[in-house]
Structure formats: C-alpha cells, structure tokens
User: Fold these one by one.
Assistant:
Number 1:
Amino acid sequence: MTDQLVYALAAEGQLRCMAAVTTRLVEEACRRHGTFPTASAALGRALTGGLLMGAGSKDLEKITLQFHCDGPLGNIIVQADPHGKVRGYVSNPAADSINGNSRGKLDVRAIVGSGMLHVIRDAGFEIGLMKEPYRGMVPIVSGEIGEDIAYYLAKSEQINSAVGLGVLVEFEDGTSEESLSSVEAALERLRVRAAGGFIIQVMPSAEENLIAKVEQTISTAPASTEMIAGGMTPAEMLRTLVGDLGLVTLEEKEPRFACQCSSARARLIISALGRDEVEDMLIRDGGAELTCHFCNATYKISADELKEILKDETDVRCQSDSIADS
Ligand code: ZN
C-alpha cells in the first residue's frame, strides 16, 4: 500500500481527524540514517506526528518539532509541510533498547529520556513573509512521542487531542539480530512493516457526551500498527476510531520523505563561509564535503568548484568596488 495522509471532520465539525499510513517514508528515513530498531521507532513516530500536525494547515505553513532529549537518542528534529513533505533525523541513530528478549517491545521511552519538546509553526518565511512564527514548548512528559505531542497540543495550543503513533520493525527473512555477522548486515535486513498513526481533536464546542463516546471507541480500537499491518487505509482507521460519527474526508494526499537540500545550496553554504575558509579548504583538503543532517545526503565540492567560488567572490568584490568608486 502507498503512504497516505487524510484530513477529515466528524460529528458535524466537532471532531478534527488526521490519520496517516507512513510505512514507506519511515522506511526510507530509517535507511537513509541507518537507524537501529528503537531509534527507527522514535524517528518514525516523530515523522508521522509532524505530518499529522501539519495536515490541514495553511498552504505556506511549515511545522518543526524538536525533541531535545537527555536520553541516548539525543535530539529528534522533524519538519513537515501541509503538502505531505516531511524530513527529519535523530542525533544518535545507533540508540537502541529492547525490553526483555529480542521479540520484546522497542522501548522508545528509554532512549528518549526526558527533556523539552519545541514546536515551531512558521508561514511564508521562505518567500519573504516576515510573520512571526508561532513557538510553543513543553517538557517531555512521557518519552513515547505520541503522548508528548498530545500533551503539547493540550498545554500549548489548548486543543484536547488523542494521539496514536506507531512503528513496527522486523528483520527480513526471520533473521534474528544475533545471528547476523555485523551491525551493517543487520541494518540491511531491517524493515518497517507498518508505520502511521492518528490525531483526533475535540473542538471546544463539542458536547460532553460526544467526548465520552469518542474516548470509548478510541480506547477499544486496535493499535495503529495493527490496523496498518492488517491493510487498513487512514480513512478506515478513522472510521474504526470514531465509530459512526459521519466522517467527512476533506483532504487526501500521498506523504513522502523529501528534503530541500541540493548541490546548489551546498555551494551557497560553502561560499558563505568566506574567502579565508574557502582558500584553506582548497589548500588543505583539495575540496570540501557537506552532509545534510536532515536526509544524510553528501555533497562533494571539487577543487575546481572551490576555485570558481573564490573567483565569483573576487568578481563581486570588484563590482562593488567600482560602484563605490563611481
Ligand atoms: Zn537534505
């Protein structure tokens, strides 16, 4: 099944519902970053959470989630736009913690620890709109990601929300972690079997008995990963979660892992370092290499390109000198 992100309303607008299947994009993120099983679950949950929080927002709005964690995982940074593009990374992809035996549950809380969750919603900065971004911050109260997002939404945005996020990973061909010769070989065989989740928000106008009813259906619904592994679409998940409350789908899109980096941007970053630094790179290293944190792509800048950057800079300088002279 392809990934899918759905934004819907239910109970005549008293409930705002977002759900997503993100199996493919989470697997791509994990492969790019070489994340271990528990780090994969943490990153996948955060990527899905970012997408769900960004769904249904205005065209230019971008949402950034920063989990500053004191556990072995370090930080989780995720950025999503309302079109379903998301990117993200964790500081330590090798963080791992499995409860009990190798068939045990991935212990996300153990690698996240405590810390702070920062959320930034900004609109239009990239096209020069200087609107102040909305910033919110709450302590990490759970470390399971979904509960932390629910806490943030309640405390900072004053919206009561039920949040469910899940990632199910497994090793291909029934291979166990121990039987593989190296960490690299193990990671090669790591697959994301199901990833996704939902956010259901209760609007302030909602009736008391509606809230009780939804709480009841959500608490009896299967876990997100179970529904997704069973082949359910996001709309079917929502129907299971809210019951017969007249679900109306407003938007449906295919989310994907997408970064904004490019070799042109890499060049721009290098030239912004200034003449001395670029000359130094040329003499000392005979080139430069830049890796994007968000997607782990590496850009190599050759010696010739560095010379070109230095030449461009000289040209610009000469031009501005002559303008100053005239
Ligand atoms: Zn990138």
Note: The longest helix spans residues 303-325.
Number 2:
Amino acid sequence: MAEEVKKRAFSGVQPTGKVTLGNYLGAIRNWTPLQEQYDCLFCVVDLHSLTVAQVPAELRKNTLELVALYIACGIDPEKSALFIQSHVHEHTELAWILDTIAYVGELNRMTQFKDKSRKHADNINMGLMNYPVLMASDILLYQAQYVPVGKDQVQHVELTRDLAERFNARYSDTFVVPECLLSKSGSSIKSLQEPTAKMSKSDPNENGYISLSDDIDTIRRKLRRAVTDSDTDAHCVRHSADKPGVSNLLNIYSLCSGTSIAEAERLFEGKGYGVFKDAVADAVISVLQPIQAEQKRLLGDKAYLEAVLKRGADKASCIAQKTLAKVYRKVGLIPQIR
Ligand code: TYM
C-alpha cells in the first residue's frame, strides 16, 4: 500500500528580545500536538530579527536560547525539523523572486509595517517593508498547508496566499496555498497594562508582558499589577467585552490551568481580584517552571543543540532546494551545470 503523504506545517518565532507568554500561548504551545499529524518544520527566524537594530552577541544568545526553548516547550527534533532560518540560504533566494511579484502598495499597507515604522522612525529600512515577503518565502519554500500563528500574523499569511496564487496564475501551479491555524482563546493574548493591545516583547513597559524567562517573584508581581477593569461590576471575575483586563487574565488562567472560562468564573465568584490574580500567577508559574528548567538543562548541552540544528537544516534544505529549483525553472532561469 502506498505510504500516505503527510500534510506539512511551518512556523517560526523571531529571536528578538524576550519571548513572551503571548508567543507561547498563541503559537509555540500549539505546535506540539501538530507533530503527531503533520510533517512539521519549526524555524528560528533570525533574518527577520535584523529588520530592527540588534546587538550581534545578543542575537546569537537569543537564537540559541530560542532553539532550546522550542525543545523545552515540546518540539521533538526526532519528529520535526528544527532549524535556524539563516542556515538555509534558499529563504532569501526565494524571497527575491517573490519580491518581483509583490507590490509596493500592498507591503505599504501591512499593519505591522506601519506599527514598526512608527516605533522605529529612525530606522525604516527596506528589510522592514520586505519582511512579509521573506515570511512568505519561509512558508512557500516548504509547500506548507498549515501555518500555526497568533492573530497578529494573519495578515502576513494572507499576503503569502496572495503571492502564491499570483505566482501560480502567472507561471502555472507551483506553490501550495497555505492556511492559518489559530488557537481558539490564545490567538491574541493582551498586554497586562493595556489590555486592548497585544502582549508584545517590544513593549517598553516590562510590566505589560510576562517573559518566559521571568522568575516566580517577577511573574507574581506583574500579575498583581495587571490592569483590571473599573466598572460597576468591580471585583466580579467575568469574561466580557467590557472587561478586557479581566477577560485577558481569565484566558491566561484557562489556558494555563486547563479549566474552562465558565468554570473559572464560577471558581472565583465573589472572591475579588486579589485572590484571582494570585491564582493566575500560580497557573502561569506551574506551566513556565518546568519549561525554564528544561531550557536551562538543554543550554548546558551545546553539542546536542548543534546536532539538532544540523539535522534540521539538512532536512529543510532538501525540501527547499527542490522548491527553489522548480521556481527558477518556471521563471526562466537557466540551471547551473554541476
Ligand atoms: P513573532 O516572533 O512576533 O511572534 C511569534 C509567534 O507568536 C505569536 N504572538 C502572539 N500570539 C498571541 N498573543 C500575542 N500577544 C502574541 N504575540 C505574538 C505570533 O502571532 C507568532 O505566531 N513574522 C513572525 C515570524 C515568522 C513566521 C514565519 C511565522 C517569520 N516567518 C513563517 C510563521 C511562518 C513574527 O514576527 O512572529
């Protein structure tokens, strides 16, 4: 009997600054179960990080820490390819081809480009604008059907679909047109200080996010300081649109404890925000502590991490070479004689 070909899933996180609870609950955590069903590739997208100024030594450190974090969060290098984006040169090569079919107007309209241009007004570089084309290249290179990401990346995946369809229409069927996989309640974890904005690792206010490397005391302190809502219903732990702060904490509690939102509302009825916030902190700590311990252990074994990265890049390169050769042929480039 012919072996069933598994569908493919691809995702990545930038090794920029501190990885947050939002990155974990909105993305990384949801990758683990996919490994059973799909052929998965998980990438540390270091080239994307260069679109904002980096300290080189810190970028190297963050990159390795993120590799260890992926494994500590449950990515199994025996099942999935885990690799660093810059180790597979086809990413930037395909990005160039996609650049030739991407319109300046559509890149200019990307919400994240506009946000980052505001935040880094002194460094609105071409890479920042081209960022979604490199992301499209990451995905299309592997013919991935599924892209598990948080809500803030949906627009980029939509652009990826547009570019795939445009290329296919112009040069005949070449790319799989990918779809987003969003987690139900984790797809947009909000800032603890401004619960209508997303929790972001680039937030200048450290109290706005929980970093996956925060220690117990810091997690408790940040959650105690989390903005709740002042309304007539004060101290009522209820999930609703007019209570964004409490709703965000309920989401975090539910995702970290495995309790449903409705159950959590019942559990904290009449208990007040103080008790509730401590319980959220306990739930977050119980999830992060074992991850932190495992990440630390892995970082002590550089040889293992290097072996994982080599194997991951070898597997990824094999797929990437095939796609790029096909693309070069379709657009009319003459293959090099070797
Ligand atoms: P990045 O590094 O900003 O974020 C990594 C992942 O975390 C998700 N995320 C969130 N989810 C829920 N709530 C939040 N507050 C939150 N903040 C971040 C993001 O949606 C993302 O899934 N461009 C991407 C990296 C990338 C990529 C790719 C992703 C490059 N190439 C190819 C998928 C496929 C980014 O900057 O993610």
Note: The domain at 206-296 is CATH 1.10.240.10 (Tyrosyl-Transfer RNA Synthetase).
